[in-house]
């Protein structure tokens, strides 16, 4: 078949790859005075990872590359490699709230959870003292068996750091684990 002057041969087109912004890297906590320009909402398990890929509230993708063992807390601020200050927000998650009729019963519940190395948040409100832990039906059954009143809720989870952990602190503020502060008194 002969091609006439109206026939156009197909032309291969080469297009540039889609424009994508580079992954923003976060390698350090921030202790300065600048306000946060974005925030990162994470549950506790994710805040316990020192290396991860996540999305900020603005939609920007970031890579966290923090020192191993870093646990982020709600209210922490991070410094991105582009100069942006990012606030950490503790996401609501499914929790168990444990209350007991007496301090002895609550201490017993705390002992059994600690014996299983369960992360626990300790607090008090108008209803009295409570323990909170991530939802787990096996632990819930154990606590009910100990006589505790157990309810479920969705809330941010900020468990205790542990006796030998540095605790929640910001560089240069002089804070440390409460157990060490009390030991000298």
UniProtKB/TrEMBL annotation:
Predominant cellular place of this UniProt entry's protein: cytoplasm
One Pfam family from the record: UreE_C
InterPro entries found in the cross-reference section: UreE, UreE_C_dom, UreE_N, UreE_N_sf
Top-level taxonomic group: Bacteria
Keyword Cytoplasm: yes
Cytoplasm is among the record's keywords: yes
SUPFAM superfamilies assigned to the protein according to its UniProt record, in alphabetical order: Urease metallochaperone UreE, C-terminal domain (SSF69737), Urease metallochaperone UreE, N-terminal domain (SSF69287)
UniProt keyword terms in alphabetical order: Chaperone, Cytoplasm, Nickel
UreE urease accessory N-terminal domain mapped to chain residues: 22-86
Localization per record: Cytoplasm
Summary of the function given for this chain in its UniProt record: Involved in urease metallocenter assembly. Binds nickel. Probably functions as a nickel donor during metallocenter assembly.
Family from the record: Belongs to the UreE family.
Protein name (database record): Urease accessory protein UreE
């Amino acid at each position: 078949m002969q091609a006439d002057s109206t026939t156009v041969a197909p032309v291969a087109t080469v297009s540039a790859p889609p424009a994508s912004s580079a992954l923003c890297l976060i390698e350090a906590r921030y202790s300065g005075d600048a306000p946060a320009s974005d925030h990162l909402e994470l549950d506790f398990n994710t805040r316990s990872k020192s290396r991860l890929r996540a999305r900020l509230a603005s939609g920007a993708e970031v890579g966290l590359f923090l020192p191993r063992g870093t646990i982020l807390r709600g209210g922490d601020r991070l410094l991105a490699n582009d100069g942006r200050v990012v606030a950490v927000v503790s996401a609501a998650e499914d929790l168990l709230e444990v209350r007991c009729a007496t301090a002895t019963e609550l201490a017993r519940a705390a002992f059994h959870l600690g014996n299983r190395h369960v992360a626990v948040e300790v607090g008090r409100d108008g209803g009295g003292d409570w323990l909170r832990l991530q939802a787990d039906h096996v632990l819930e059954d154990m606590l009910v068996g100990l006589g505790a009143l157990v309810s479920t809720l969705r809330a941010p989870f900020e468990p205790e750091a542990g006796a030998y952990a540095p605790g929640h602190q910001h560089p240069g503020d002089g804070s440390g684990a409460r157990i060490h502060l009390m030991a000298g008194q």
